Amino acid sequence: MTRKRNHQHPEGERRASVIRVRKIVGQLNAVQRMIDEDRDCAEILLQIVSARRGLKSLAEKLIHAHTHHCIEEARTPAEGRRKLRELLMVLERYVE
Asked: Is there a contact between 42 and 87 (Cβ–Cβ < 8 Å)?
């Protein structure tokens, strides 16, 4: 469900999200290296927990940004309702 939208997130938020994603990717790469090196399971699990927390934090930031920037600032009530429906659909998957 990738659609090009005429929407821009504030530069600071976008930059912060990119930094978060890079950190998560680094953590996942570390997990792969640790598995390749046959490291202790507890060490690997701790790294997975860190990556999972990073993903959760990123998701929470994006949910917050979507609510405030995309829904609240919709151009029309109909657009706001559509964006809210999209968010609710995603949240249903997020909590599964």
From this structure: no
Rg, C-alpha atoms of the chain: 17
Determine the Cα–Cα distance for residues 71 and 59; give it in Å rounded to an integer: 16
- The CATH number linked to 82 is 1.20.58.1000
pLDDT digits (tens, 9 = 90+) for 5-23: 556 778 888 999 999 999 9
Please name which of 13, 20, 28 lies closest in space to residue 64, comparing C-alpha atoms: 13
28 class by beta-carbon count within 10 Å (0-12 exposed, 13-18 middle, 19+ buried):
middle
Tell me the pTM.
0.77
Does the residue 58 lie in any domain? yes
The parent domain of residue 17 ranges over 12-94
90 and 60 in contact (C-beta within 8 Å)? no
C-alpha closest to that of 20 among 73, 59, 72:
59
